[in-house]
Amino acid sequence: MRTETGFDVATATRCDRTAAWAALAGHYEAHGRDFDLREAFGRDPRRFESMSFDAPEVFADLSKNLVDAATLRFLADLARECGVEAQRDAMFAGVAINNTERRAVLHTALRAPRGSAPFGDDVHAVLDAMLAFAEAVRARANGASTSAVATPTVRLRHVVNIGIGGSDLGPQMAVRALAGFAHPGLTFHFVANVDGADLASVLAGIAPAETLFVVASKTFTTQETMTNAATARAWFLAQGGTRIEEHFVAATSNVEAAARFGITRTFGFWDWVGGRYSLWSAIGLPIAIAIGAERFRDLLAGAHAMDGHFAQAPVERNLPMLLGLVDVWYRNFHGFTSRCIAPYAQALQRLPAYLQQLEMESNGKRVDRSGAPLPFATSPVVWGEPGTNAQHAYFQMLHQGSDVVPVEFILLAQSSAVAGAISPEATLRQQRMLLANGLAQSQALMQGRASTSEPHRDFPGNRPSTTLLLDRLTPRSLGALLALYEHRVFTSGAVWGIDSFDQWGVELGKTLGAKLLPLLETGPVIALPADLDASTAGLLRRLGA
Ligand code: F6P
User: Fold this and answer.
1) Mutation test of ligand 1: which of 107, 219, 511 has the most ligand atoms closer than 8 Å to its C-beta?
2) Which entry of 29, 256, 510, 515 is annotated as an active-site residue?
3) Segment 110-161, tens digit of pLDDT
4) The two domains 9-95+313-496 and 109-295 share their CATH topology (first three levels equal)
5) Using one digit for the tens of pLDDT, what is the confidence trace for 211-252?
6) For the domain 109-295, what is the CATH code?
7) Who contacts 90 (Cβ-Cβ below 8 Å, separation ≥6)?
8) Which of 147, 374, 429, 513 is the most buried (most CB within 10 A)?
9) How far is the CA of 254 from the centre of ligand 1 (A)?
10) In whole angstroms, what is the distance from residue 84 CA to residue 515 CA?
């Protein structure tokens, strides 16, 4: 793949063979392994100022990380030697950087203003249609009579999104995050698991005439989604539902398959939108219904502002690049195996799960773009839960466990509590408590507390963390935050030289599952295949096969 600037990733030097990598290795031995945050703050009274960064909607404090000015300089050199900027430019220009699937990667085009990015006419035609539909749904939730959506005489109360992976996690995370902006008369449900318990628990509380189902699947072939959608349609008819065409809509790049399913209203998107990068596309329909057209455009605008920062800021002040480069430093030099996401905001409860797919499905690869094995580690395990809950669960391990886990604190200056539910005084009091807890945890991780007489009370400290600070959780700031993470994942993937946009690792389990299903369906009447491994055969017999 040759980029517009002439940078050719096929002939690019592998990251661990660059001069910058050697410099980082030497720097790690000399100053990295024994780096002490407390001493670093003692040496440099301006450490906070020089290691905190402003990007659109997000302020980032990197000063509690195990880096000094030289580390950041060598990491910036690494980005340049690995052609991160050239690869970034190629992505924005629509070069087929997803080379194993021969596809462009253009989720940035989904949030670009009309006429400023590839496929603008197609993108804005679908966006306009989808947002007009979202407004019609919201009107039906107000009781307005519009024949465009659902049974015209009944007020719409429920939206059920049926999708999995990127067709679930993004919309679910964003609808929950923006609950304070959502239509008060609508309840949003997200069904993903093929476990019938997931769908059944939702259907038990809704009525067909009051419900809009959104079948969300890029491929429209995913087993879980197709099965749940078929079960939901059967339930709808069995419960006396009529006019399927008004109660089921689809978001997919496979418009023909949606039509075969019996869905006539479909919002399409394109193969250059990866599933885990798709909430900006028609997959965002539940978000648009929840917050309305104007605010959905704000979400896109926030992401676009971060795109501009990523595209233009020099490496040294480019926040997504810096975060991605520090990730490389931790993974490949310190050998840290995971990163914990701690949003101090209940509204961001699904963010860790969303980021888990974004990062681990993108960068969980052990070969480079050409298929050559890589001798260094790639994606860390990404995990987490909102604070303060997490403090009362696994923060023990973060403070005193045997592994060092970099933690990412996401703080909101203002509360995201839905207005009016509790008093303004209670909201303010609890927000201050929340912030004090978040700040205290990063402080405790860094400072530690020595106790030689009582080892179980000893906190080693020197444990790294990043704090991302947003003024308020709004559609715009959420858009910027998510784009920040997308580009950070891009940066580490570009350094490692992997294809961050394919996901072949999910295929084998799907194929084997398709072979095992008939054995469970037919039961003991057919013999289990002779070449079946003894463990799977034994478990199947226990299950009655
Ligand atoms: O199996 C993994 C995956 O392909 C994800 O990449 C994707 O987000 C998810 O399944 C759902 O896929 P689809 O939107 O095509 O149903």
Assistant:
1) 219
2) 510
3) 999 999 999 999 999 999 999 999 999 999 999 876 656 655 568 999 999 9
4) yes
5) 999 999 999 999 999 999 999 999 999 999 999 999 999 999
6) 3.40.50.10490
7) 1, 3, 4, 5, 7, 97
8) 374
9) 13
10) 42
